[in-house]
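Quick one:
INPUT:
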């Protein structure tokens, strides 16, 4: 199922869309955090070691980017030929490896941090809306000095159904007390863009998981990365 882009979002250029918004709702993996290549590597590593299933980077980006790790490992476990750990156990191992790999250096770039600072200075309400677990998101934000930058975090544990279900974006808007059409979501995946549009939130695609052609087919608003020049 596809969801229509809000009409007023189509009529504005990207900077005007952001300028008019009361709130900015940011996906974490691949959007605020420059880590999709790392995610692909960790999913492949755990899948091959624990399940005996090889996952190429191309398959990760085509099939899994934007979905929860539990969903990914559930799909991959079904392809294994023998007994496997549960999707929950694999998810816990993934989270532990992610924290190990990111402990030394933040995956949130200086430009992304400057974007958040500029958005806050411009009076924007800020939220993280992610399919990832709080176990990985909160430490990453604190490591980058952004622990207090967001009014709310809507993570995997906060919703009954994760992206592409729109529940996460509807919840974030409700917690902030902002009408969905008065917010802007920043997303890097098909699943995330579908979730935002399903909640009626105009969306800016951040290139990475999607190339320019794929992103432009989903939203008229596409940027290379988070950058304070957008504000």
């Amino acid at each position: 199922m596809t969801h229509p882009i809000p009409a007023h979002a189509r009529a504005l250029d990207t900077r005007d869309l952001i300028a008019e918004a009361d709130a900015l709702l940011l996906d974490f993996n691949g959007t605020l955090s420059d880590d999709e290549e790392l995610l692909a590597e960790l999913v492949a590593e755990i899948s091959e070691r624990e399940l005996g299933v090889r996952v190429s980077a191309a398959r990760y980006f085509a099939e899994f980017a934007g979905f929860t790790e539990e969903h990914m490992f559930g799909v991959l476990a079904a392809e294994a030929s023998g007994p496997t750990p549960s999707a929950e156990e694999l998810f816990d191992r993934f989270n532990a490896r992610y924290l190990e790999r990111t402990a030394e250096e933040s995956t949130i770039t200086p430009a992304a941090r400057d974007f958040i600072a500029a958005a806050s200075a411009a009076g924007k309400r800020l939220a993280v809306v992610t399919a990832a677990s709080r176990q990985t998101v909160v430490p990453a934000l604190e490591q980058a000095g952004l622990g207090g930058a967001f009014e709310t975090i809507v993570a995997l544990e906060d919703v009954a159904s994760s992206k592409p279900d729109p529940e996460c974006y509807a919840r974030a808007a409700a917690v902030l007390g902002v009408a969905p059409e008065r917010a802007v979501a920043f997303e890097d995946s098909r699943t995330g863009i579908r979730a935002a549009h399903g909640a009626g939130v105009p969306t800016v695609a951040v290139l990475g998981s999607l190339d320019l052609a794929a992103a432009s087919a989903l939203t008229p608003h596409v940027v290379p990365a988070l950058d304070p020049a957008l504000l």
